[in-house]
Amino acid sequence: MREVAGSPSRWPRHRRQMLANMEKYLEVGDQVVKIVSYRTAEHRRKRPDGLPAALMTVLPLFERACPSALSPDATAAFDGVADELWEQFCTRADRLADETGRPEWRDPSRLPPWELLKLMGVAIAAGCTYAAGGLGDPDDDIPPWVQRVEAVRLILTSAAQVVLKDTRRLGWLVAQTLSRRRLRTLCRHYTAALHGLFYAAKRARGLHPQVYVLSIRGRADFSHFAGHAWNWYVDARKREIVALDLTGADWLLDRGQADSILNRGFDGARWNNVSCFLSTLFDAFGTPPSPLHERREVIELVAALVDPATPRGQALLFRLAQQLTVSDAARSRIVDRLRAENFSQTFPGWRTELVPGSLFLRAAARMGRFRNQALDEVLLDAIGV
Questions:
Q1: Is the pTM of this model over 0.90?
Q2: Which of 23, 90, 204, 230 could bridge 268 with an S-S bond, Cβ 3.0-4.6 Å?
């Protein structure tokens, strides 16, 4: 109970700010890669610095991790329908050009990569509605317990078909979002659809080979246990990453609180980007069908991202241990290392923040993932924990 007095709400403001700021950039060796909002990306001049080599070697593998889903042959299956998805997207873009008065959208292949991504976001949002919003207006006076029951019901019923099919065939999910059927989806489906559609454009037409759209997932906000998924837009020619949340943007659009995809909900830079990136790497490293499974490139990148001898490295380990997908054995090793480093001197009461949540939440975070959790410790060995 003594540790409760040192809960995060009572930590000095500069300590809490330190943790928040740490999530806004990757430190790979002596190189820093900023994680920025779409507003910053649109108004900043091009930064031709390039990305660290350790990150560059992982990007092509990470890009293929979404089509892989749970099936080893899913990537090949997705490549087989890439041309069909691109043609369907072009047809949808042509209609959107008429509806919005944007003639430049008639030929998506001519668009710069950032503009192409925005058009894809518009097309996907037009075919989806966020399933967890099915209770009605967010201002309705609905008891919290009713909302929780309804959320579980939606996950198990109305969204079940999507959950099952997109794990087997991402192409089906992308095609459905382009069909204007207002598919009831969750954040992971918005994220996978945007990731998959941009990947299809690259496979079908060879567009923008130096640009990658990735899927990030994890506890985006440590004030609650719920997980979230969003995208990264990575241009290998620039030393920055743009974090995008298509789910949040469409949620505001559907409720008439925004006029376009480029609204405050589209900003993914506010989430726990670095710790969720690490958690996603750990998850993919231990999942056999993933192109990142047991790859040397992942080991080298994780080792370059986290130095447990530094305050930043220790704080990253603390954040990583808060993620639900990290194995219990790995979490115990992190706790032992932080205790040895006297982490409580900087963040008193930190151990009370590592409660991994209910069994239901932990099971949901790992649901459907045939993952070798023992491989978490391989990555911790590389880090030096």
A1: no
A2: 230
